[in-house]
Specification:
This protein has 407 residues and is mainly β. It has 2 domains: 147 residues, no CATH class; 236 residues, Jelly Rolls. It contains 4 helices and 27 strands. The strands form 4 sheets. Strands 10, 12, 13, 14, 15, 18, 23, 24, 25 and 27 form a 10-stranded mixed β-sheet that branches. Strands 11, 16, 17, 19, 20, 21, 22 and 26 form an 8-stranded antiparallel β-sheet that branches. Strands 1-2-3-7-6 form a 5-stranded antiparallel β-sheet, with no helix packed on it. A hairpin with a 2-residue loop joins strand 14 and strand 15. The protein is globular and about 90 Å long. Bound molecules: calcium ion (CA). Calcium ion (CA) binds next to strand 27.
Length: 407
């Protein structure tokens, strides 16, 4: 097997040396000159013995060893292992957001990834003890578990400038993957804060032929006249920044309010709207050629405020790609790769971090898919007489990031 060379980083020894000196001056002013001399000598010895001029890391192979995302990576490192580089302060190895759980004596590192089948390019990161990425490197030929039936490269089109698939659900199974999603059940408080008329169940959705279908039905449950489903990745998959895309076909029945959106995982800046909300796609069923995007946050005064834009000219009943590109300084929205709305950090605020330039859109968010019925978005309109059911279909949800950026 060909060995490939993937990363080389020269240790900034001059910088290290001057930092060490500064550290000595700041933290040990009362030491005797002899003690200082001895310490310096020890430091020098330590560097001579333990810090290489360059660190090289070779990935020999990376292979999924089962269907549920267990990955085995065989590597060589010219200076110890990723977990024990002879005293050099690397604390851990991370691969596209997931920590290695174990390293064996044959230089195999073991990971559990969220997207086992379709991930063919992986990003490795060595961290130092201050949680800074020290080396980033990539490996492009990850072997899927079953090469016979899956050609991972064929199914994914990367957005321009993005080369890492951080997470996705392709809906290839026969039921909702509950390692990725959880249900919101019921009608929430005041229709999930929106005056929605449906009751969300854990069974109005199906997964088949590679597509998630969420059904909105005329059906009485509890005291509500409609049922539907709402799913989210909260506490399972959340992230900061990236290109978030789903291919979705929407219902065109009056009263339908389908959405693909994101909420903060930890609400670090306080309850809604202070920690933000990113609505990648919302639609009103009675307008079959329109959808919109929005971000919500709080003004300096603490009042709810938002930026939104509607786009028309696409038939929402057929599949279209709806996406948000979320960066530190902007959030932009796309339909079928065409940008139609951009917001900038100078427009964002939250009352609970008034001096931050990037708050509240600088923390981990999670993804939500739902089909609401009624609610304030389209003036509490309900489906017409005789309505029985309709649906929203999702081919995939993907989160892309850029290799080399420390997301
Ligand atoms: Ca699919």
């Amino acid at each position: 097997m060909n060995k490939k060379f993937f990363a080389l980083a020269v240790i900034p020894s001059l910088l290290l040396a001057s930092c060490d000196l500064l550290d000595v001056l700041l933290t040990e002013p009362t030491n005797s000159p002899e003690q200082n001399k001895e310490d310096e000598k020890k430091e020098e010895q330590k560097k001579d013995e333990q810090i290489p001029d360059a660190l090289a890391f070779y990935i020999i192979s990376a292979k999924f060893i089962d269907e549920i995302g267990h990955l085995k990576v065989n590597y060589e490192c010219n200076y110890g292992s990723p977990f024990n580089i002879n005293g050099h302060p690397f604390s851990h190895l991370n691969i596209t957001g997931v920590l290695a759980k174990e390293v064996d004596s044959s230089n195999n590192a073991y990971f559990t990834l969220l997207s086992p089948i379709i991930q063919t390019t992986l990003k490795f990161e060595f961290y130092d003890t201050n949680e800074n990425v020290y080396i980033s490197c990539r490996f492009e030929n990850v072997e899927p578990y079953n090469e016979e039936t899956v050609d991972p490269a064929q199914t994914i089109t990367y957005p321009e400038g993005y080369d890492t698939l951080y997470w996705s659900d392709e809906f290839n199974g026969n039921s909702l993957d509950t390692s990725k999603w959880t249900y919101d059940i019921g009608n929430g408080s005041n229709g999930w804060g929106n005056g929605e008329s449906q009751y969300y169940t854990n069974h109005n959705e199906t997964v088949s032929d590679g597509v998630l279908t969420i059904k909105g039905k005329k059906e009485y449950v509890e005291s509500f006249a409609y049922t539907s489903t709402r799913i989210k990745t909260k506490d399972k998959v959340s992230f900061t920044y990236g290109y978030v895309e789903a291919s979705i076909a929407l219902p065109t029945v009056t009263g339908m309010w389908p959405a693909f959106w994101m909420m903060p995982n930890n609400s670090s800046y306080g309850g809604w709207p202070h920690s933000g909300e990113i609505d990648i796609m919302e639609a009103k069923g009675r307008f079959p050629n329109n959808s919109s995007s929005a971000i919500h946050f709080s003004a300096d005064s603490g009042e709810h405020t938002y930026l939104t834009k509607e786009k028309s000219g696409h038939n929402i009943a057929t599949f279209h790609k709806y996406a948000a590109e979320w960066k530190e300084d902007s959030i932009s929205f796309f339909i079928d790769d065409v940008k139609y709305f951009e917001t900038y950090k100078s427009q964002w605020t939250t009352v609970n971090a008034p001096t931050s330039e990037t708050a509240p859109f600088d923390k981990d968010f999670y993804i939500i898919l739902n089909l609401a019925i009624g609610g304030h978005f389209d003036g509490y309109r309900l489906p017409p007489e005789g309505f029985s059911e309709t649906s929203m279909q999702v081919d995939y949800v993907r989160v892309f990031q850029k290799w080399g950026l420390n997301y």
